């Protein structure tokens, strides 16, 4: 959960550096809290939005939706994005430099 600490510009730079360092069919595994596209009335959803506000005010970072993470990854050069699994609001997402299912 590093990307939530930074704004889009710094995340783009970080992901771009990862992309450059990877071999042709390499991947980056990201574990991040994901902001739901549709707001739910639950304590878990409330916690995510409270953390989002905290990250914005303290660090200048933010939590992102899955779609926002995909946009950042593609802007950094990644061509494949695959959501692997989730637990509560934490998601494991793979960003692929080469094919969408590198190594599969």
Describe the protein's architecture and organization.
- By secondary structure, the protein is of the alpha+beta class.
- It has one domain: Vaccinia Virus protein VP39 (Rossmann fold), CATH 3.40.50.
- The protein has 3 helices and 3 strands, in the order αβααββ.
- It has a 3-stranded antiparallel sheet, with helices on one face.
- It is globular.
- InterPro entries: COMT-like, COMT_C, SAM-dependent_MTases_sf.
- Pfam families: Methyltransf_2.
- This is O-methyltransferase C-terminal domain-containing protein.
- Keywords: Methyltransferase, S-adenosyl-L-methionine, Transferase.
- Taking strands numbered 1, 2, ... along the chain, how are they ordered across the largest sheet? 1-3-2
The largest β sheet comes out as: 3 strands, antiparallel
Shape: globular
Order of helices and strands: HEHHEE
How confident is the prediction overall: mean pLDDT?
Answer: 82
Question: Which percent range fits the helix content?
Answer: 25-40%
CATH architecture: 3-Layer(aba) Sandwich
Helix segment tally = 3
Rg (CA only): 14 Å
Keywords: Methyltransferase, S-adenosyl-L-methionine, Transferase
GO molecular function, one term: O-methyltransferase activity
Pfam family, one: Methyltransf_2
Protein name: O-methyltransferase C-terminal domain-containing protein
